[in-house]
Amino acid sequence: MITGSSSASIPEESLAALQQEVQQNLEQLKPNVMLETMKGWIPGLIAFGIKLLIALAIFAVGSRVIKIIYHMLNRSFTRMDMEISLRKFLLSVLNATMYCLLGFIIAGQIGVNSASIVALLGSASIAVGLAVQGSLANFAGGVLILMMKPFRVGDYIVSKDGEGTVHTIGLVYTVLNTVDNKQVVIPNGTLSNSPLTNVTAMDKRRVDIKIGIGYGSDLKRAKEILEQIYVNHPCILKEESIDVYVDELGASSVTIGGRGWVATEDYWSTRWNMMEQIKLRFDEAGIEIPYNQLDVHIKNGNAETQDS
After folding, report:
1. 184 has which bridge partners?
2. Domain limits at 275?
3. Which site from 163, 227, 252, 301 is most exposed, i.e. has the minimal number of CB atoms within 10 Å?
């Protein structure tokens, strides 16, 4: 009777050899896989590197071009005698715009989708615009004022919201100094959309004076005195015409008037001085300046009263 084991045993030498062979194959397989993977990356890395170098070159050249354009615009705005606040603002906006365009060009060069960036910026701009709508109106008014120059710093202007000497013209507000040394801040949107008077825009102003005299006063003498005051005043411009005339025959007075020209900065001092001279000279000449008065007449020596 022959007996045997139920399963054949593997020699230990063969098992060790098999394990060694598997280990060698694994060691050979890992570097090969990594190398193959890296070989697949290399073309993409090279292409990205080339794009990056081109983008850096575009940035360098573009930055140089932007600086040249910036200095050219700055010189042009200076020659145009543009207000310094408007000049700085426009240069800042143009500089930022040019760098944004350069950024979009670079983003497109390296493969970034610029359409989504533009859409995001557009949505953000709309939201901000709605939030600051009133301020934007004042801002637009400030730009119009600085560009059209209806008035400058130092001018005396009169508007429905106040009057005074222009102290500051900002992009949103204009500051006026009043004659009693107060400051009035007016939104530029209001100033740009409403009528205003620039009192000091011209080099010369006309001093118009009208004054009433009594019907019993010497009309010719009154006109002579008024004309002498105009002619002899040192601030009245002699090269300009001087007019003295009868303006109106009123209910209780004859109104005479005079016209003469002065330098704008001498207007108020000249007018005040001339008004004082007129009163003094008329008093000396016995010329009456009527004023409103109430005359009470009593009949038969008794005042009659009546209850209502």
Report:
1. 176
2. 204-285
3. 301
